[in-house]
UniProtKB/TrEMBL annotation:
This is Putative 3-mercaptopyruvate sulfurtransferase. It comes from Gordonia amarae NBRC 15530. One of its GO terms (molecular function) is thiosulfate-cyanide sulfurtransferase activity. It holds the Pfam family Rhodanese. Keywords: Pyruvate, Repeat, Transferase.
Length: 272
């Protein structure tokens, strides 16, 4: 599910290069399209997380609800994805945003979807070339169908019979601060598991054994259900990616996450 910069460079030079998606995005920041135009991986198509990787609804749906699968299919065709295409996603660092594309495309039925380990900084550090300007590929013909990966509703998250990981910063989990959503705290019974701990200081995923040790210490185990949520369902996808690398393949994602939970009359826990 990961690809190194060297292996991606070789694949791009081969006869059937993968579709490469640039998913640069920052919570509360400007869209990443400007940065993309200034330099991106050769052939990479820009993906707008807010408009193409999320739906739009009421606050009770959360800030980044799942897109309608027909809308996602139209976007995937715009990106040039064909039936059987290999897809690689990356972002500006750590793959915290790119993991949303990785998860969504797998949820919609694609199987050959990978993340560029180390993301854009690893490509640049390797001295590999960037290109500028928009890439507009020929439209693809991929067909998508929802439901290939498990998800949780608010009711399912509240009654989850397993380990429910909260991927937000510890101070948000404890309820000491809440800069975005209407309530501070966490879902009762959840375990704090900040997404940043999945990564090395240079933005690569930790090794499978390191990640397995991390999640095992948090109570995750083979045969035990595990789910993940965050603020709005974006970095929770990164948690699912890290769990997959660690060998826990059936982690469920709560797409609405805290942004949905906190907009309903549901119980809130604070502290550790």
């Amino acid at each position: 599910m990961l690809i190194t910069v060297d292996d991606l460079a070789a694949a791009l030079a081969g006869p059937t290069p993968p579709v490469v998606l640039d998913v640069r995005w920052t919570l509360g920041g400007p869209p990443g399209h400007g940065e993309y135009l200034g330099g991106h991986l050769p052939g990479a198509v820009y993906v707008d997380l807010d408009t193409e990787l999320a739906g739009h609804g009421e606050p009770t749906d959360g800030r980044h609800p799942l897109p309608d699968v027909d809308d996602l299919e139209r976007a995937a065709r715009r990106w040039g994805i064909e039936p059987g295409s290999a897809v690689v996603a990356y972002d500006g660092g750590g793959n915290l945003a790119a993991a949303r594309a990785w998860w969504l495309l797998r949820w919609a039925g694609l199987t050959d979807v990978r993340l560029l380990d180390g993301a854009l900084p690893a490509w640049v550090a390797a001295g590999l070339p960037l290109t500028v300007g928009d890439v507009v590929p020929a439209p693809g013909r991929v067909s998508l169908a929802e439901g290939a990966l498990p998800t949780l509703t608010p009711a399912g998250a509240g009654a989850f019979d397993g380990v429910l990981l909260d991927a937000r910063a510890p101070e948000r989990f404890r309820g000491e601060t809440e800069p975005i959503d209407p309530k501070a705290g966490h879902i009762p019974g959840a375990v704090s598991a900040p997404t940043g701990d999945n990564l090395t200081p240079d933005g690569h995923f930790r090794t499978p054994s390191e990640l397995r040790d991390r999640f095992t210490a948090l109570g995750v185990g083979d045969g035990k259900a595990v789910g993940a949520y965050c603020g709005s369902g974006v970095t929770a996808a990164h948690q699912v990616a890290a769990l997959t690398i660690a060998g826990f393949d059936d982690a469920a994602l709560f797409p609405g996450s805290w942004s949905q939970w906190s907009n309903h009359d549901l119980p809130v826990a604070t502290g550790d």
